[in-house]
Amino acid sequence: MKRLSIIAACLLLLAGCKHKGPEQATQPVGTDYSKVEIPFFDADSAFLFVSDQLAFGVRYPGSEGHEKCATYIAEQMSRWCDTVIVQPFTATLWDGHKVDGKNIIASMQPELDRRVLLAAHWDSRRWADHDLDTNKWRSPLPGANDGASGVALLMEMARAMKTMPPDIGIDFVFFDVEDQGIPEWANRYEDNTWCLGSQHWAKNPHRLFYTAQYGILYDMVGCPNPRFTKEEVSVGFAQGVLNKVWNAAATLGYGNIFADKMSSAILDDHLYVNQILHIPTIDIVQNSLECSFYPYWHTMNDNLDAVDRNTLKAVGTVSLKVIYSEQ
Question: Which of 17, 134, 188, 290 sits between 20 and 30 A of 276, alpha carbons compared?
């Protein structure tokens, strides 16, 4: 995942203004999210799901941890969802190397037409190309916040929803091969070397003519000092969804976390869901003031210490409030 150039961002926003996708679900003006009943989001449970993933080791395609984690996600989601589909695909990386990827799609109440898409990537990056120690640039990193936090959030939301099923269908999509884009030391850059799993799924969805009212992508949602901003691609394609989530956060007292600030465009999985499937999808992604994303992004220090239970709790609670307000 990378920040897009200003020119690219402008083009994306122009495309977003012309785009007409599925109608975005809306609540009455002045919805009191504090009164929306939701199931309990257990922050300790979510944190355990992060720890479980890291116990498999690195999770880049082709690694032993990657295979074990795929099995773990599918088995866990089958406990709470009605269907689980593993979508295998072959991806060509920036250096021409081919890898086997697996998108995992778990659905609640797949028979319902009204649906919400919740997504995250589950692979960890193969190269720690932002580490301060240049000797580690070609080493695989743990991927606790960047990868495992989003997966853990989806898993805990699924566990919670199982105890109190919503009146709409939910699709949890775990994208693979998101974080294997061209490294900094390659001395060149190509946008489409990132987010290969979401590119594949958007062109080959798990159900023919699949659509959803809207989608939310979670990336790096466990930072100890969280700051989520109104990312430019999300504004361009799904401003109504973005405003709904940020309004819910403000109502619940999380306005300091979900900052009312615009930020530059991000090349992330939501871009391809918006462009190809035309599902208005936002990205909840860490955006630090002092640095790009967060201090340990794409470094060997992206370990369990880079994830905070309280941040997972905040994002999970806000998300559940939005989803259950649709009822």
Answer: 188
DSSP 75-117: HHHHHH-SEEEEEEEEEE-TTS-EEEEEEEEEEESTT-SSEEE
Nearest CA to 199 out of 169, 171, 177 is that of 177
Entry pTM = 0.93
Beta-bridge partners for 174: 104, 120
Calpha distance 137→228 (Å, rounded): 27
For 206, which DSSP code? S
* pLDDT tens for the chain, residues 1 to 327: 555 543 354 444 444 433 334 434 444 456 889 999 999 999 999 999 999 999 999 999 999 999 999 999 999 999 999 999 999 999 999 999 999 999 999 999 999 999 999 999 999 999 999 999 999 999 999 999 999 999 999 999 999 999 999 999 999 999 999 999 999 999 888 889 999 999 999 999 999 999 999 999 999 999 999 999 999 999 999 999 999 999 999 999 999 999 999 999 999 999 999 999 999 999 999 999 887 799 999 999 999 999 999 999 999 999 999 999 987
Residue-wise burial string across 274-301, b where 16 or more C-beta atoms lie within 10 A, e elsewhere = bbebebbbbbbbbbbeeeebbbbbbbbb
What residue type is 71 in one-letter code? T
User: Domain total for the chain?
Assistant: 1
Query: Could you list the residue range(s) of the whole structural domain that residue 270 is in?
Result: 2-325
Radius of gyration in angstroms for the set of CA atoms belonging to the chain, rounded to a whole number: 18
CATH at residue 177: 3.40.630.10
- 120 neighbors 152 (Cβ within 8 angstroms): no
